[in-house]
Design a protein that fits this description.
single chain; alpha+beta; FAD/NAD(P)-binding domain; ten-stranded mixed β-sheet; eight-stranded mixed β-sheet; globular; disordered N terminus
Length: about 550
């Protein structure tokens, strides 16, 4: 017992000393970042063009077909690709982006819906004294703060509970979570705190009571991943990028470099998937941001190139909302096979996931029954035995393919890069692969920095820190109340419009049809159980942007 007390004191004192050093360093760095943020935002507002009206898809395609040469052509309309397009166009580079399906139709819309630094990465950084893991967490926490700032209508802080069932885990997890707060510095969303068993059960009554010691609550961000991806793409279009979905790259265009005699990528031969029309898009630089399909495009460039992606499937399930509180998530830090499971409120439902299993690359991955049952088993371990989570409770499930990558320039071909890599082929194809949702912006910045240097492009510095995304302007936390009062919408519908379209919700509300009832006055639901209304379809059809 004396040894345990001494060990606990050592952990607390040591953590405090390290925390002080980290806290001071991050305070200084945060102040520098804030000064840069204010400067960059002001510069962006002054110098970056912005269109009041979004061009239609037809206009975007015309621009792709008729522009003599773009500076940058991005292939892939997920978070990373859209981020690259926004970064490029705001540097005053003539920018194009093509996506063969819907924007965010792949991995970017199949996430856990979290904007986070990665608690488990910080644990590895401390336990293994791994500086790279620490820097990953540090970067992600900075990007988390930026993303919550530039798209407040699509994101918000979320408290996440970590239940503790062994007494010794309480100081251990507390030290780790407090370090997570301190690495974030002043960008910490809210300070973490410890709960007694009674309070934990009061906030999360579905928890298993037996042997529960207490809980720790920390904060991360939650966002609408599909809408966030679309907001990034539309913001790029607002600033002048020519973006087109349902536009597939058939093959890459190449030309001989007059100085070296080597072939260089100079664009792509594309196909409008809807009409079947084919055309060339010329560009000084082509960026491969195709996620799990990274190697497919790399092999268009060079058939002999080796694969760098090792696809891994992450499965999530959706179960009824009564399995979790409306405003509190849950983290299982150590599943039976060493993974972590999140249990999160989402759109009045509950999301549980994720898995991490090797898979084949496909455009439409299907969740495996084994993965679904694994998640259900792990969820049952943390819920009261009075609550029977059944297979029939699974309302939906999805599988997203994470492209874990190996560095093609590394001598150790077996090493897996948990972060991301930017590589440039002999022919000049720039590839960005790996990474995670939270760091899409910094990944795009790094990619454009490399592309500009490799291709000798004339560009301005990155301006995307603090650059507000589509819908952020005009949004306030009470916007939905104005929609109810001014248009006579249902409260639930108004909240949905405000959190989906931000300041653009007024435009959607103006098109809402009269219901013919005393209340709501306007806003006919497409399906009675969900807050989607007809005017959303009308608004999208009228704009014909995507």
């Amino acid at each position: 017992m004396a040894f345990r007390r001494a060990l606990k004191r050592t952990v607390v004192v040591g953590t405090g000393a390290v925390a002080t050093v980290f806290g001071l360093s991050h305070l200084i760095e945060y102040r520098k970042t804030q000064a840069r943020l204010a400067y960059v935002t002001a510069e962006a507002e002054l110098k970056v063009p912005y269109a009041d009206e979004l061009p239609s898809r037809e206009a975007q395609l015309t621009a792709l077909k008729t522009t003599e040469e773009f500076d940058v052509l991005v292939v892939g309309g997920g978070a990373t690709g859209a981020g690259c397009a926004l970064d490029a166009v705001t540097r005053n580079l003539k920018t194009a982006l093509v996506e063969r399906s819907d924007f965010s139709s792949g991995t970017s819309s199949r996430s856990t819906k979290l904007i986070h630094g990665g608690v488990r990465y910080l644990q590895k950084a401390i336990m293994q004294l791994d500086y790279e893991q620490y820097m990953m967490v540090k970067e992600a926490l900075h990007e988390r703060a930026n993303l919550l700032e530039i798209a407040p209508h699509l994101s918000a802080p979320l408290p996440i509970m970590l239940p503790v069932y062994k007494w010794w885990q309480l100081p251990y997890y507390w030290a780790g979570i407090k370090m997570y707060d301190l690495v974030a510095g002043i960008q910490c969303l809210k300070s973490s705190y410890v709960l007694s068993k009674t309070k934990a059960l009061e906030l999360f009554p579905m928890l298993k009571r037996d042997k529960l010691v207490g809980a720790i609550v920390y904060y991360d961000g939650q966002h609408n991943d599909a809408r966030m991806n679309l907001a990034i793409a539309l913001t790029a279009a607002r600033h002048g990028a020519a973006i087109a979905n349902y536009t597939e790259v058939v093959h890459l265009l190449k030309t001989k470099d007059p100085q070296t005699g080597k072939e260089k990528v100079c664009g792509a031969h594309c196909k409008d998937v809807i009409t079947g029309e084919e055309f060339d898009v010329k560009a000084k630089c082509v960026i491969n941001a195709t996620g799990p399909f990274t190697d497919s495009l790399r092999k268009m460039d060079n058939q002999e190139t080796s694969n760098i992606c090792q696809p891994s499937a992450g499965v999530h399930i959706v179960i009824p909302g009564y399995y979790s509180p409306d405003n509190m998530g849950l983290l299982d830090p150590a599943t039976s096979d060493g993974r972590v499971i999140f249990f999160l409120p989402w759109e009045k439902m509950t999301i549980a996931g994720t898995t991490d299993t090797p898979t084949n690359v496909t455009a439409h991955p299907i969740p495996g029954e084994d993965d679904i049952n694994f998640i259900l088993r792990e969820v049952r371990n943390y819920l009261s035995p009075d609550i029977e989570v059944r297979r029939g409770d699974v309302l939906a499930a999805w599988s997203g393919i994470r492209p874990l990558v190996t560095d093609p320039n590394s001598k150790d071909t077996q090493s897996i890069c948990r972060n991301h890599i930017v590589s440039i082929s002999d022919s000049g194809l720039v590839t960005i692969a790996g990474g995670k949702w939270t760091t899409y912006r910094s990944m795009a910045e790094e990619t454009l920095d490399a592309a500009i240097k490799a291709h000798g492009l004339s560009a301005e510095p990155c301006k995307t820190v603090g650059l507000m995304l589509e819908g952020a302007k005009g949004w306030t936390p009470t916007l939905y109340i104005r929609l109810v009062q001014d248009y006579g919408l249902e409260n639930e519908v108004a909240q949905h419009l405000a959190s989906t379209y931000g300041g653009k919700a007024y435009d959607v509300a103006k098109m809402a049809e009269v219901t013919g009832q005393r209340w709501p006055i306007v806003g006919k639901r497409l399906v009675s159980e969900f807050p989607y209304i007809e005017s959303e379809l009308d608004w999208s059809q009228e704009r014909k942007t995507v």
